[in-house]
Structure formats: structure tokens, C-alpha cells
Amino acid sequence: MAPQTDTRNWDIQPKDAKQVLAEDKYDDCLSCRVTGSAAFIGLGVYSYYSGMSNLRKQEKIIMQGPSKYKMGSRQLGIASISATLIGMGLWRAFN
Question: Ranges for the Distal membrane-arm assembly complex protein 1-like domain (predicted)?
């Protein structure tokens, strides 16, 4: 037979649950925010400079290749990834 369970402790009203969830907001320490935002911003800056540098080095090969994705679309891809990472770093810093 299954053991008997006591459900009296679980009588929580919806308004009580909402109040507890509102009070239980997680707050980061300052050093966690600084480290996290610096990591994202640094990764975004690094990916932009290294990606654009590699594109400049490989430009002749890329333009001669059969791919329909030439320099413009590749630069857009690198810029959008970098901007997303930097945006994540800024969001992490201020939210």
C-alpha cells in the first residue's frame, strides 16, 4: 500500500504564491555583473576584430570561390554576431 500523505501543509492560495514570487527576486552581486558583462563585451569586440582581419586576409580567395556568399554577407554576419554579443554584455550590465 502507498504511504499516506499529509496535504495540509500544501494549502497555498494563489495570492500567497504571487506575493512570495514577487519577493523572491534574484539579485546579482556587482562583481558578477561586471565580470559577466565584460566577458560578453570582450568576446564581441574580439570576434569583430579577428573576424574582419581573417576576411581581409582571405578576400582574394573568397572572391574567386564558387560560393554565392561574398564579402558583404560575411561581413554582415560577423558584425551581427559581434553586435549581439556586445548587446548581451550591455544588457547584463544594466539589467
Answer: 28-65
pLDDT digits (tens, 9 = 90+) for 9-29: 666 677 777 777 777 767 778
User: How far is residue 48's CA from residue 22's CA, in Å, rounded to a whole number?
Assistant: 39
| Residue 8 CA, distance from chain mean position | 42
Q: Is the pLDDT at 5 greater than 90, yes or no?
A: no
- Residue 33: CB atoms within 10 A of its CB come to 15
- Percent of residues in the chain assigned helix, strand, coil, to nearest 5: 75, 0, 25
Contact 78, 43 (CB under 8 A): no
- Asked if residues 78 and 49 have their Cβ atoms less than 8 Å apart, the reply is no
The pTM (predicted TM-score) of the whole model is 0.69
